[in-house]
């Protein structure tokens, strides 16, 4: 098993200590930070996403994998910043107004992060105004909205309308998700995409930022 | 026939003359639809009630869990709420690590139940009475430690977690044993185990850490001739065989997240389905015809005769006319 395999395996198994050690080893052997992301971290988290969708992994396994990935990323991040490597894309993410559910949204953030996206996570109970302000400040390609309550789903539409009113809608793609949502609802409120799981959210984000 | 008798015969698949009913309420509905609610309750009275706990000692809680702002429960967990009529969420958990578990103060006040008062309550009603206690070991761990931390702890298995869980279980056993000595008809417990499409943790982890706890709770109920009732939100198909195996009598779960017909085929006749009606599509957005069709699906899946309780939750987004239509439909179904 080479060091890339070791890093991939450590992330998939959620072993943050080994992930950190393997990353250190690869970096000191002169491997490029981008290559580590492309060759180990992204494929590892894609595999984690696949296992989650297939019902082989559950939230605990995904969370410890994301933790191991972050341990590796902490070492890689300074190098990326120094080489001024741009992220795969920027995403502003949050749970809409009135809604406190964030387990799914946090998972989406972790998976997007592992796929190379830079995330601005606004947290929960985020008003349309706060989404608008964050879009103005971070200039993301994508805005991700999460809702777990049927009563907070209308806040998704209100957020899209607020982006339109501020003439920001044309600059961003809006993706939506959360337990009670459907693709039909997403289309009706004028979102650009819907994904039923965190793994599908990564594929969607990739499609929305070709 | 009294409501109590009706529920008992439902639980034992002993051909009750009609389906028992129970409406669950969140203050959201009481605030918005007081008139409609009164009409529903007058026309379709509950057959199942919860006994008040009549605690002699005051529970050390602060605030109202259903109002915006903070609420501190009797364990010292602080919930932040942003919406009137529903509950909030713990944003700053008490425990940074399980090493500190000894600092958690157990609410012994919960054990100051006045048994005579409870028994008098039971004597004065002919409805089926649930205990006024509801252990929730998984959720209590989450409230104390934060959900994501706890989920990772279940993989890391720090010693303090096991030590605390043992203490927590012992406390809940004491509480249930106390209620088992009263005249209530059933004990109940809960924990949300599912998301929309899968369980929150693997069935293996669940079986290792949590199934034994529920097995003990069911045993306490059965040893004193009482029924065991449980609630869990979400998709929990994987653990249904386990719940049947430990002898659970009635389960409230999101049957529409799973597959109603399949649940009926595999588990109908083995335990009673304590509701429900889908809260995500049908109650908030379904037509009257959709509600009636859903009730018919539930009947053909679960009614043996017996084996189903017409329960639904009037909570955020639900339409009062759909709650009404659900209970009305059952009048002609059984
Ligand atoms: C855990 C939970 C809670 C926890 C939340 C903890 C937290 N920090 O998030 C607590 C206890 C706080 C809670 C509170 C409430 N809850 Co709740 N809760 C749940 C439960 C059981 C699981 C949700 C979950 O975490 N799933 C696991 C994650 C991983 O899945 P997920 O969130 O769906 O996310 C995945 C996808 O949807 C997608 N995704 C999510 N977001 C996004 C965003 C984007 C952009 C994309 C692309 C994809 C995407 O990817 C994720 C990963 O694969 C659900 C049951 C259910 N069926 O889902 C009820 C549920 C959502 N809750 C419900 C209710 C009613 C409530 C309360 C009103 C209850 C009350 N008594 O007051 C309060 C409301 C509080 C509030 N203001 O928000 C109802 C909602 C019904 C409705 N009408 O809509 C549900 C469906 C339960 C039910 N029986 O019907 N809840």
Structure ligands: cobalamin
CATH topology grouping of the largest domain in chain A: Rossmann fold
By CATH's scheme, which homologous superfamily of the largest domain in chain A applies? Cobalamin-binding domain
Largest interface: A-B, 24 and 28 residues
Radius of gyration of chain A: 17 Å
Please indicate the percent range of residues of chain A in DSSP E strands (runs of 2 or more). Answer: 5-15%
The count of strands of chain A amounts to: 5
- Main-sheet strand order of chain A equals 2-1-3-4-5
- Helix content range of the residues of chain A, please? 55-70%
Number of DSSP strand runs of chain B: 11
Summarize the biggest pleated sheet of chain A.
Answer: 5 strands, parallel
Query: What's the helix-strand series of chain A?
Result: HHHHEHEHEHEHEH
The domain tally of chain A reads 2
- CATH-scheme architecture of chain B: Alpha-Beta Barrel
Can you give a write-up of this model?
The complex is a heterodimer of chains A (210) and B (334). Chain A is α/β, with parallel strands linked by helices. Chain A is built from 9 helices and 5 strands; from the N terminus they run H-H-H-H-E-H-E-H-E-H-E-H-E-H. In chain A, helix 2 runs parallel beside helix 4 and helix 4 packs across helix 5. Chain A is globular, with a radius of gyration of 17 Å. In chain B, strand 4 and strand 5 form a beta hairpin. In chain B, helix 5 crosses helix 6 and helix 11 packs parallel to helix 13. The longest helix of chain B is centred in the middle third of the chain and has 22 residues. The two termini of chain B are 15 Å apart. Classes of the chains: A alpha/beta (210), B alpha/beta (334). The complex binds cobalamin (B12). Cobalamin sits at the interface of chains A and B.
């Amino acid at each position: 098993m080479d060091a890339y395999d070791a890093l991939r395996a450590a992330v998939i198994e959620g072993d943050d200590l080994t992930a950190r050690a393997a990353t250190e080893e690869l970096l000191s052997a002169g491997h490029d930070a981008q290559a580590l992301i492309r060759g180990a971290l992204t494929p590892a988290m894609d595999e984690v996403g696949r296992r989650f969708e297939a019902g082989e992994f559950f939230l605990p396994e995904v969370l410890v994998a994301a933790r191991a990935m972050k341990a590796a990323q902490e070492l890689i991040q300074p190098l990326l910043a120094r080489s001024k490597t741009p992220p795969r894309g920027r995403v502003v993410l949050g749970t809409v107004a009135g809604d406190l559910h964030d387990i799914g949204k946090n998972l989406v953030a972790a998976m997007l992060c592992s796929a190379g996206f830079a995330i601005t996570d606004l947290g929960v109970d985020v008003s349309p105004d706060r989404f608008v302000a964050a879009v103005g400040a971070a200039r993301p390609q994508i805005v991700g909205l999460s809702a777990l309550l049927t009563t907070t789903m209308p806040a998704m539409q209100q957020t899209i309308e607020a982006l339109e009113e501020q003439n920001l809608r044309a600059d961003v793609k809006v993706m939506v998700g959360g337990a009670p949502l459907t693709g039909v609802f997403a289309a009706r409120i004028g979102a650009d995409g819907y994904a039923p799981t965190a793994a599908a959210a990564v594929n969607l984000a990739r499609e929305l930022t070709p | 026939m009294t409501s109590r008798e009706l529920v008992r015969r439902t639980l034992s698949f002993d051909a009750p003359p009609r389906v028992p009913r129970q409406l669950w309420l969140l203050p959201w509905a009481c605030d918005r639809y007081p008139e409609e609610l009164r009409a529903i309750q007058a026309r379709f009275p509950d057959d199942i009630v919860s006994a008040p706990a009549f605690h002699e000692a005051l529970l050390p809680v602060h605030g109202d869990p259903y109002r915006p702002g903070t609420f501190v429960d009797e364990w010292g967990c602080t919930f932040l709420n942003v919406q009137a009529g529903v509950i909030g969420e713990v944003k700053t958990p008490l425990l940074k690590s399980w090493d500190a578990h000894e600092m958690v103060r157990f609410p012994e006040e919960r054990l100051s139940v006045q048994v005579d008062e409870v028994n008098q309550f039971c004597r004065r009603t002919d409805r089926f009475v649930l205990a006024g206690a509801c252990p929730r070991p998984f959720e209590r761990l989450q409230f104390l430690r934060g959900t994501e931390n706890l989920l990772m702890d279940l993989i890391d298995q720090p010693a303090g977690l096991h030590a605390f869980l043992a203490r927590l279980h012992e406390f809940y056993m004491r509480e249930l044993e106390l209620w088992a000595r009263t005249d209530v008809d059933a004990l109940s417990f809960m924990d949300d185990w599912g998301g929309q499409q899968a369980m929150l943790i693997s069935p293996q982890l669940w079986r290792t850490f949590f199934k034994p706890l529920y097995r003990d709770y069911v045993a306490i109920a059965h040893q004193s001739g009482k029924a065991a009732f449980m609630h869990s939100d979400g998709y929990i198909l994987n653990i249904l065989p386990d719940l049947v195996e430990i002898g659970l009598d009635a389960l409230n779960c999101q049957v529409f997240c799973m597959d109603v017909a399949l649940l009926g085929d595999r588990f109908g006749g083995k335990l009673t389905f304590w509701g429900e009606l889908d809260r995500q599509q049908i109650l908030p957005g379904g037509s009257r015809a959709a509600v009636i069709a859903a009730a018919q699906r539930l009947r053909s899946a679960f009614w043996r005769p017996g084996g189903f309780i017409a329960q639904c939750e009037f909570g955020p987004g639900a339409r009062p006319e759909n709650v009404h239509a659900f209970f009305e439909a059952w009048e002609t179904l059984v």
